[in-house]
Specification:
Layout: E1 13-15, E2 20-22, E3 25-33, E4 36-49, E5 54-66, E6 69-71, E7 74-82, E8 87-89, E9 92-94, E10 97-99, E11 104-106, E12 109-111, H1 119-136
Parallel strand pairs: 1-3, 2-4, 3-4, 4-5, 5-6, 5-7, 6-8, 7-9, 7-10, 8-11, 9-12
Length: 137
């Protein structure tokens, strides 16, 4: 899924305003959601959820721009951008998280180069390593 990068800012698939889609969605390319999507998973190269968009699903993507409502976890390989009208309930894992003023967010955020790592162990290891080095000097 992540092998091809789509730098095109235009959507090649749209769930339009007033539309409702339920199921499992996998797409190479960009998906714009202005309607409603519910499912177990949403895998897409790039996802844009417009101000009227509603998603109740876990999302796996390269990058996400959210203006609407998300209920579910977001895992993004590059970045997640939460615009002022976004409302998110779920875990976010990404190397870059941009949160604009006005966002409502409840959930765990893990921001690390490899979002699948355990940041707590990494940070504690670095801290303990620095303390050990200071004590040995």
């Amino acid at each position: 899924m992540f092998s091809k990068r789509n730098d095109n800012t235009e959507s090649n698939s749209i769930i339009g305003e007033g539309s409702y889609f339920k199921g499992e969605f996998t797409l190479n390319g960009t998906l714009r959601i202005d309607g409603c999507y519910e499912g177990d998973k949403l895998e897409v190269d790039n996802v844009f959820v417009g101000p009227t968009g509603k998603v109740k699903s876990n999302i796996k993507t390269i990058s996400a721009v959210i203006e609407g409502i998300i209920i579910g976890n977001i895992e993004a390989k590059n970045r997640v951008m939460l615009m002022p009208t976004s409302r998110v309930l779920g875990e976010i894992r990404t190397p870059e998280l941009i949160i604009q003023n006005g966002v409502i967010l409840e959930g765990l955020c893990i921001v690390a180069q490899d979002p699948l790592t355990n940041p707590k162990e990494t940070i504690l290891g670095l801290y303990n390593n620095n303390i050990d080095n200071q004590n040995n000097n």
